[in-house]
Design goal:
alpha/beta; Rossmann fold; 7-stranded mixed β-sheet
């Protein structure tokens, strides 16, 4: 699928198959602008953003600089925002982030870099912000402004309630924004309450604006920003009034737009099998009728008369989708003959949280289930758990009269660091290794609860994850080779991959992309199915599901017991950003039982719970 503009949006919206392609497109726009201005002897003034969204853009610009000679010596930059208070060398400083992510890798002049100063006194903020605006005007204004969008619709730190004409200023952060940043700061309590930000009015003065959004978690706010009315509740909606703004999306972020989600309400469509299934399932749930109870009037009254005319009558359409969804029900997910199955788990708990019931079923049916834990997951362990485990080891050695001198030395070293550790400060190697061990032992216990022996567990510890911080490096070529080697050694008939890909630079997406590359590299000599499961926070849409595995009450209880083994993650059982503080087992149970309720509502056989999968075909 190629890129395409979405019709009937209030802001021109360009959708790409992947965030990588979208980022490359924006990088080429910037390259063209810089080269044009360089040839004319003019500076290029860029407004820049931080966060996970523009990471791919900056990496592509760095590549263009190093491989294509893109010259940044005439580029002048103004960043959108900075936390307050925030020292420039702090691990969470946007100034430090920009240097490490972009500026240190291109030939931009330090004097041309402008980032709000997080060390100013709040009392001096008005005067400082006025000077920042003046610097932008003296530079000739911003040629191209890069933006991301927050879940609350904020651009920069222009939170809900920001006006169309607001300028650079000191703001108080919205609770949603602070919760979304909580994981980066190792706790919401460590997130600053204030920030300096360019105002909406300042942003709208840029000659061209590109706003980027990637991942399913951005889809709801993108829909409201580009299809809803202009409102102070969503700062991004003010971009509707700018003469040259483009939304750049990947498919996931565009998924809630009406022309994509319900294209039949916009106009004539090409009724592919997948779109027929989407429309009929949507109609069934909309009118509250089972698939086989839909009638012609249901289609006519909900703008599906063309579908009815081309592929009807209603009875035929309902039966068609009913049969397709009945075909997705599977009690033997790996077949009747014993085989080797490989489950990839990005973190040490994704396997049991997301498909624990299916794993239990596979083991019971005699398949050799191997689980590959792709990262250590150590940054998700709380300091107090590491402290407790150092105490345990020392007391264990004392109880059995084992050598205590070395373990007490490690304990003292680790606990001394923890006493002095600042919020968000990176862990020492000792502490990272202890946290890694905690996650590994929990993974073994969870696998045992599913019937998997420890010799069938692979702890890959892929290189891209080994930064010790939330920010991750790009996938390493050796990581892909390690996955290919695993395929060659195990020769699986099926592999399962986490398909929760909301964050374009998150661990799940990076791991999935590495696996997909490895599958392509290994495809000449092997033949196996690739199935995608969803993570802890979301389920496949009912029209997307290609396989569902029924779970009995006992299956679900065993799955929950496996999840319980991950005790260090108990306090982290929340949505990204912390808006749902139910524990992982509760999220998993609710998700699996809700999938069964949806199938029941469609008139399919009633089950206690279901786990859903989609096949990846390359």
């Amino acid at each position: 699928m190629s890129s395409h503009y979405v019709p009937h949006t209030r802001i021109p919206t360009l959708v790409f198959p992947t965030s990588v392609q979208a980022s490359r497109h924006v990088a080429l726009m910037i390259e063209s602008l810089i080269r044009q201005n360089n040839s004319a002897g003019r500076p290029t003034v860029l407004g820049l953003a931080t966060g996970s969204t523009p990471v791919g853009l900056y990496r592509e610009l760095i590549r263009l600089h190093k491989e294509a000679g893109l010259d940044f010596s005439r580029v002048v930059t103004f960043n959108l925002d900075e936390y307050l208070p925030m020292a420039p060398d702090n691990a969470h400083s946007y100034k430090r982030w920009m240097k490490e992510t972009f500026f240190d890798h291109v030939n931009i002049l330090p004097a041309n870099i402008h980032i709000p100063d997080g060390t100013i006194a709040p009392a001096d903020s008005d005067e400082y912000c006025a000077r920042y605006e003046q610097l932008i005007r003296r530079a000739g204004g911003i040629d191209l402004q890069i933006l991301g969008v927050g879940r609350s619709g904020h651009i920069g730190f222009n939170e809900p309630g920001s006006t169309r004409h607001c300028r650079t200023r000191l703001v108080t952060l919205d609770p949603v924004t602070r919760r979304d940043a909580a994981s980066d700061f190792f706790g919401e309590e460590n997130v600053p309450h204030q920030a300096l930000t360019m105002g909406v009015g300042t942003i709208l003065e840029a000659r061209k604006i590109v706003i980027m959004a990637f991942g399913e978690h951005k889809a709801p706010i993108v829909h409201r920003a580009v299809e809803g009315p202009t409102t102070e509740a969503i700062a991004a909606s003010f971009l509707q009034g700018h003469p040259d703004t483009n939304f750049i999306l990947d498919q996931a972020a565009a998924s809630h737009l009406t022309p994509i989600r319900q294209p039949w309400v916009i106009g004539a469509v090409n009724w592919t099998p997948g779109l027929i299934r989407r429309a009929v399932v949507w109609l069934s749930l909309k009118v509250g009728k089972a698939l086989l109870k839909l009638d012609d009037d249901d289609f006519r009254e909900h703008e599906l008369y063309e579908l009815l005319r081309e592929h009807g009558p209603a009875q035929r359409l309902g039966r068609r989708v009913f049969d397709e969804m009945m075909g997705s029900l599977c009690t033997q997910p790996a077949g009747a003959e014993p085989s080797t199955v490989l489950v990839f788990s990005p973190h040490p708990d994704d396997d049991v949280i997301s498909m624990g019931g299916t794993i239990i079923r596979l083991v019971e049916q005699g398949h050799a289930v191997h689980v590959a834990y792709m990262t250590s997951g150590n940054i998700a362990v709380f300091d107090h758990d590491a402290w407790r485990f150092t105490d345990f080891v020392v007391e264990f050695n004392r109880l059995f009269n084992l050598d205590r001198e070395k373990t007490e030395c490690v304990k003292d070293r680790v606990q001394d660091f923890l006493r002095r550790k600042l919020p968000g400060q990176p862990d020492t190697v000792d502490l990272l290794n202890i946290k890694k061990l905690i996650r590994a032992t929990e993974a073994r216990a969870a696998a045992a609860a599913c019937g998997i022996p420890p010799e069938q567990l692979e702890f890959m510890d892929l290189r891209f994850y080994r930064t010790g911080t939330i920010a991750k490096a790009p996938i390493h070529p050796q990581d892909i080779k390690d996955i290919v080697s695993l395929f060659e050694r195990l020769r699986p008939s099926q592999i399962y991959v986490a398909g929760e890909l909301s964050d374009p630079h998150g661990t799940h997406r990076v791991c999935a992309n590495a696996i997909f590359q490895a599958v392509q590299d290994a495809s000449r000599g092997q033949n196996f199915e690739v199935w995608l499961y969803r993570g802890a926070w979301e389920e496949w849409e009912p029209h997307e599901v290609e396989r569902v595995v029924p779970l009995s009450p006992m299956d679900l209880e065993r799955k929950k017991m496996a999840i319980f083994r991950h005790q260090s993650q108990k306090d982290r059982a929340m949505f990204p950003g912390g808006q749902d503080r139910r524990e992982f087992w509760q999220r998993a149970e609710d998700r699996n039982r809700n999938t069964a309720k949806v199938f029941d509502a469609l008139g399919l056989p009633e089950f206690f719970a279901l786990e859903g999968f989609v096949q990846w075909r390359g």
